[in-house]
Amino acid sequence: MHTLIEKFSVKWWLMYACLLGFFYFFSSPFIGKTIRPNYSNFSRWYIAWILVAALYHLPNFQSMGLDLRMNLSLFLTIYISSIVFLVVFHIIFLALWYVGLVSRVAGRRPEILTILQNCTVLSMACCIFYSHCGNRAILRDKTPGRQHHSSLFSFWKREHRNNTWIAQFIRMNELKDQVCSSWFAPVGSASDYPLLSKWFIYGEIACNGSCPDSSSEISPIYSLWATFIGLYIANYVVERSTGWALTHPLSVEKCEKLKKEQMKPNFLDMVPWYSGTSADLFKTVFDLLVSVTVFVGRFDMRMLQAAMTKSCDETKREELLYDHLANKEDFWFDFMADTGDGGNSSYAVAKLLAQPNLEVVVDDEYRPLPRGDVLLIGGDLAYPNPSAFTYEKRLFCPFEYALQPPHWYKNDSIAVDKPELPEGVKELKDYDGPQCFLIPGNHDWFDGLNTFMRYICHKSWLGGWFMPQKKSYFALQLPEGWWVFGLDLALHGDIDVDQFKFFSELAKEKVKEDDAVIIITHEPSWLLDWYWSSDTGKNVRHLICDVLKHRCKLRMAGDLHHYMRHSCAQSDGPAHVQHLLVNGCGGAFLHPTHVFSKFSKFYGSSYVSKAAYPSFHDSSKIALGNILKFRKKNWQFDIIGGIIYFILVFSLFPQCKLAHILRGDSFSGHLESFLGTVWSAFVYVMEQSYVSFTGVLVLLISAIIFVPSKLSRKRRVMIGVLHVAAHLMAALILMLMLELGIEICVQHNLLANSGYHTLYQWYKSVESEHFPDPTGLRVRIEQWTFGLYPACIKYLMSAFDVPEVMAVTRNNICKEGMESLSRSGAVIYYASVFLYFWVFSTPVVSLVFGSYLYICINWLHIHFDEAFSSLRIANYKSFTRFHIKKNKDIEVFTLAVDKVPKDWTLDKDWDAEPKQSGVMSHKRKFPSKWCASSAQQDPVAAVKVVDHFVIYRSQNQNGEC
After folding, report:
1. Of the candidate ranges 295-299, 341-345, 457-461, the one whose mean pLDDT is the lowest
2. CA–CA gap between residue 534 and residue 526 (Å, rounded)
3. pTM of the prediction?
4. How far is residue 722's CA from residue 885's CA, in Å, rounded to a whole number?
5. Interacting residues of 338 by C-beta distance below 8 A, sequence separation 6+
6. pLDDT (tens digit, 9 = 90+) per residue, 6-53?
7. For residues 859 and 867, is the Cβ–Cβ distance under 8 A?
8. Which CATH number applies to 331-625+883-900+915-951: 1.10.150, 3.60.21, 3.30.450, 3.40.50?
């Protein structure tokens, strides 16, 4: 009867393909990408370990004449010996340092990881040498007159006559032998070192004719290992004793130049929203829960601000109303929002904002756009939560690199009586530098606005931008009858009563009938209310529609990390707001635009989409990255994903009855048996399992809750069930593939032959033959270490050979039941299974979840936040620049950079520009410290205009509304 087991070795190559494929996809995030070094190094060594442990059991290496058992045994033996030797050396060296016998420079302790890596490289070098040269003790004739014929030159000259490829192949092998015997020959025999003869390992005999009973030649492997150890010790001692003196001396000028060339900004990466190990994310969730469940409706920092404000109306108004800009001429101001995520993207936008002028193409001609006199920031200043670390590293650091604060300003200073004007400036209206006003976003409110108050309301400088602001909301009187109202919506999505009172009184008393108002909020309620089918911001609506009436020409917001502009269309009644603008591209991850493409109504008026960045088409294409790049962008999700999948199939290990899958005459028969077993496993999980069923139930509830609430309950349940079904099916298939691989190897006697210590037992049987020890060095070491020497190697080999441990324990369970296994044995078995199942499952769980996000965002238009935060896109960054013209209209330019640089270097122009004492940074021609390593990718060179329009102060002047 034909069975799959009896067929030719194609199945083994298929196993190789599957095994190598899974390991490649598991390691793909670490190939050609700089990620956290400790995790990357761990993953590489982890992959190498379990991949080699699996490959050496498969048969095709043996059929090709390659037996990995000796190399693995030798590697592990040398590895543990090297660790012990170097640890003892470092202990002795530190003891000598402690008593003062070595230089005090040597006091720094070595890193354990460095020792382990050095031992690994050393062991690999010895194994490579053994693979090519062996451990032969070549008995050479030492007659001086006969040694010349073994030289490489004479060998090459004698053999060079024949040029056929066969002869060349033979010559290469003979050349290798000559290299091994001449260049890497043993250092001598025991007779050459009589005092050390008892401390050597000897080489195996390789001679022609009669040979003595035992070799006296020192093992070349042993001599190579001793050489490497000696080099390490010598290098370590000399380096620690002399310190920097060993380096090539450089002049002070060259040293400074080299330092500048190597300088790089210490930017943080984009926030890993799908990391299961980030303390910042756990703190974010905790702060959000506390803010929403405890403080919302009970305590509001805005009420406290109002209570702390002085009772005098004029004084109160001075703390919230800033009219020092009202008489400025040729006034420019900028708007951005949602910064403080990735350092590269935040700095790219900050650098553009800091430039004295930006040369851009507008209507087919170059135009200089001067830096804004005022920078307005629309909230969400740092991610993922407000803290001293995130504000300093993600917000202040990029802005200070872009435009430095005054030289006399101290970062830890507190502004007690704002505005704290620079020396020589008597009044705020006399200050000619850029200023900044900010409103908080929802992320700034996660800690009850505490960090925002400390770093914004009680500090005076954001980089080189002066901050006179005292409260979390403000009103600005601009030239030519323009006003800016900065509203604080907190976590309620609306302004409080005190804010409404202030802005409504201001609108009645100060804002003229023909004036124009720009309202800034963090959330774009016109888009979010349409998306969620909700109605928020009733106080804001009352302020705009009933108090300001036709005077609100523009509403600006962030929160959504893209750029979109809608303008009112012709309608029967007057539009309360002429333009609706969202620009949250200040540095945070990108949000989609195509999800909001059908928005058209707000406050009873019709609106049309005038601009979207990125475009709707590009936005939908970007979403495809969830399938292709989810795991590469979110490699820390491995921890959560791998554990979830393992819990789903935990109760199914081991599968003892798989022989029926391997029988059959056709591929369809094998596939039918395989799928039938998958179904049986599913039924077992649903009917008999406890751990796996609990995992499925918890995952199902979580998946249903994860679906946005804008959908009906029925659709949410259906989507959640389909989502979990895909994960469960994938986990069951992976479980069965792993078990089938073990089953095939067991049936071919490649696993579970002689217990847990198969590799060690094989090595002990051949050790004396390949590495003779006539002086009994191993026995003496075993006695001196009380048996630890062979025991450590034995259990290290057993721990390395995870497939053997898994297969032997699996057989024991299948024969005697799970009850026969001790608790420690069960832990070891499931841990060994998890080591391989984690590699198989992590790429698949990311693929399934990424596909779910792609389908939801492009087909169902849900999960716009989750589906794009996963991509962590730093590109498509922008801000909006406004110019109040002499005719009282505002010309608007939205400036954008498609691709944000990742590699920065010190700007030579910035470094060469004279730094005069007392001169503010905004007066410099080159204010920003870093420029892109590639000049074409620098934001200043790559910036472009993605939207250009005019806001008319007089109603109906443009004929739109």
Report:
1. 295-299
2. 10
3. 0.86
4. 57
5. 378, 379, 380, 441, 558, 559, 561, 584, 585, 586, 587, 588
6. 444 667 777 888 888 888 888 877 776 555 556 667 778 888 889 888
7. no
8. 3.60.21
